[in-house]
Fold this protein.
Amino acid sequence: MNRLRRLPMDVWFEPLLIVVLGTAYILWYRSTTLTPTEEASLGWSNLRTTILDHITLTLTATVIVVLIAIPLGIVLTREKARPVKPVVVNFANVGQAAPAVGLIVLLTMWLGTGFRTAVVGLVVYAILPILQNTIVGIDQVDRRTIEAARGIGFSGLRTLVQVELPLAVPVILNGVRTALVILVGTATLSTFIGATSLGTLITTGVTLFLPKLLISGAILVGLLALIIDWLGRLVELAATPRGVA
């Protein structure tokens, strides 16, 4: 019990919420009457494919964003690149400030429809949280700690890898979690450009006026976002060095 109390509240409360919501949905699903279209869409074989497509789309975009945003954020914290930092951050901010549907439509006119266009749109939309958190995380490292590392003979690269990045890990991973949750929700819009996702359930429910299908799509997206956020939180705790809050 004492061990549980020492854990951050979200570590144990979030999975509890997932179990409660998931159980409530399963009980509702088993007790409700579905139309043939709803049964076909919510049958396990179709639903499994839809969920896996949604996860694939989300994780693909996340990996690309991480590979772009974290190295770029590191570069922008270096002294020589600081003058261009506001320009790059503001440019990334444009991607998130733009309406997601409008951004996807514009990209469709350029790249066509399908999975690739959906990934590009998600990358543009989610790059800001990770980029900004990488910059903030590294910039908040105490300058005296960096100077001490350099004073004992660490090179700039070694100081970055062994001092700055470990201390910035909690903030950077928090940005990754934020981006993941954004991507899970925004990925539903990919259905408008021919990429399969849980948004297919929502749009079908709206188009054919099938409220149960619409509700199922919304609940499943919410549950997926909670699960991914919780897993990200566990990774964040595991990767954070001891003594770093």
Remarks:
- Residues 25 and 177 are 25 Å apart (CA to CA).
- The two ends are 22 Å apart (CA to CA).
- The chain has a mean pLDDT of 87.
